[in-house]
Amino acid sequence: MHDSVCGPVAAADFSADERAAVYKAIHTRRDVRDQFLPRPVDDDVLLRLLDAAHHAPSVGFMQPWNFILIRDAARKAEVHQAFTRANAEAKAMFTDERQALYASLKLEGIVKAPVNLCITCDRTRGGDVVLGRTHNRQMDVYSTVCAVQNLWLAARAEGIGVGWVSIYHDQDMRRILAIPDHVEIIAYLCIGYVDQLYDQPELQKRGWRERLPLDQLIYEDQWAEHAGISSDRPRPDRAAALPAIPSVSG
């Protein structure tokens, strides 16, 4: 696939509607757990999503990612079995009062989603010395996470749901997908169309945890004991600062 823009790109070439669309994708993105539809995802749509991921920023332009598409039912069943074993272990880690709520959450759509996708990071790509990674070896991993986010936002714009499965033993996933030792597993995603999304994150809606207030997470100039924008500065009005975000039915 080719870039749709050739030559230099203006720094401020987004219209108000285009800016609002970007923020809408960000604010209405959801982690989809099991509400996938049986409708298949066409290859041209998958390629658009993967192309969006491939256009993520990467340290030293090393582009360390690979994409393993999993559509075979038997392979997905193996992954689901690995998840089920690990999920039982995870449930036991929570306190008794949390275990019931945890058990009620449907934390994966491995079998139900028409497409599973494993995104990996090849830590040898680019050689031993990579521009920008000389003093922070994790930058290739961080770059691959940016690819995950690019794909997720593009999927939201396409009306496609994404769920991130993180409950599995690394060695199980390596065995099932034949992933070599020098390649790190970054994300295992379930991908498919959905007919609706929650109007807020499911874990927030189900009472697992609330979103933290932004102004309690902002420090100025250095780490501080108490978060918050300095009292001698005017606090921005978030509602006024961002474009209007249409609500999502849920």
Automatic annotation (TrEMBL):
Q: The Nitroreductase domain covers which part of the protein?
A: 26-193
Q: Which InterPro entries match?
A: BluB, Nitroreductase, Nitroreductase-like, Nitroreductase/BluB
Transmembrane as a keyword?
Answer: no
In terms of CDD domains, this protein maps to: BluB
Give the GO biological process terms. cobalamin biosynthetic process
Assigned keywords, A-Z? Cobalamin biosynthesis, Flavoprotein, FMN, NAD, NADP, Nucleotide-binding, Oxidoreductase
EC annotation?
Answer: 1.13.11.79
* Ranges annotated as biased composition (Low complexity): 239-250
Tell me the enzyme class: oxidoreductase
Q: Reaction catalysed? A: FMNH2 + O2 = dialurate + 5,6-dimethylbenzimidazole + D-erythrose 4-phosphate + H(+)
Q: Where is this region: Disordered?
A: 228-250
For the keyword Oxidoreductase, the answer is yes
- What does the record give under GO molecular function? 5,6-dimethylbenzimidazole synthase activity; nucleotide binding; oxidoreductase activity, acting on paired donors, with incorporation or reduction of molecular oxygen
Q: Which family does it belong to?
A: Belongs to the BluB family.
Provide the assembly information. Answer: Homooctamer.
User: What's the protein name?
Assistant: 5,6-dimethylbenzimidazole synthase
Species of provenance: Phyllobacterium myrsinacearum
What gene name is listed for this protein? bluB
